[in-house]
Each structure stands twice: as structure tokens, then as C-alpha cells.
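Each letter names a residue; the fold follows as C-alpha cells. Both lines appear below:
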Amino acid sequence: MKDTWLKIIFIFSLAFNCAVLGAIGYPLAKQYWRNRTEPPVLQEISPEDVPPQVLQSRSAFRKRMLQERKKVRDERDQLAQLLMAQPPDKQKIQDTILTIANLQGKIQQAVVEQILAETAAMPPEQRRLYLANIQGRMCQGQCGRGPGFGGRRGRMNRPCP
């Protein structure tokens, strides 16, 4: 009989402890996870406010970037093949790395030129909002702090540290 009562008391004690832990721990856990997964706050520009010449240039730009990115992927595939070769040809590997770096540099230059072309056609307030959105997307994540430091995701349109 004593054994049964001990089991019942133990079960109620466990249930009570779990309830207290949940009541105290849930708000703390909710606050912790909300801060870790909060998306960056970016104001979007409505499509009606975007000048038509910007939309046209974006279409051509996207097509050109798809081709450039395909070239980078092809070079990376070639690099993987060179790395798997027995014995690996170090000079060809270095040449392929330089080719990939040059292609990525061209892509970056094209992106900056596109941003400058788009902002030239915008009114000052829209330009400020557009550039703030770009800056927020560029700094999304660690923003130069390296992996493992957590913090807020995005920089809420503030400058990168």
C-alpha cells in the first residue's frame, strides 16, 4: 500500500515540477528564440513607384547575370574535376581559381553599375529607401562578425560595423 502511495505522490510531484518549469521557462525560451529569428525590417518600394526604365533594365540585367553565374558554375565544376584528377595539376587549378575570381569580380562590377543606373532614375526619397534596403540585405546575418556570434539577423537598415 505504501509503495502505491509513493508512486502516486511521485507522479504528481513530477507533473507539478513540469508545470512550474514550463510556466517559468516558456516565456524565457520564447523571448530567446524570437530575438534569434527576427527577420530584418525592410520597407519595400511598391512596383507602381518604380520607374519603367528601371524595370526594363532589370530584366536585361537578370538575363545577363544568369549567363555570368552559369559561367562561374561551369568553372567551379571544372575546378572540382581538376581537384579529383590523379595527380592534380596545380597550375591548371590556380588558373581556374583566377578565372572564377575574375568572373565573380565582373559580376560584382555589373551589380554596382546596375545599382548606380537604377538609383540615377529615382527621386531622392525613393533612392534613400532603395539603398537602405540594399544595405540591409548585404548585412543580413553576421555582418562581418564571423560564425557563431548570433545576434540580431540583419542590421535594421543600419550601417555595417
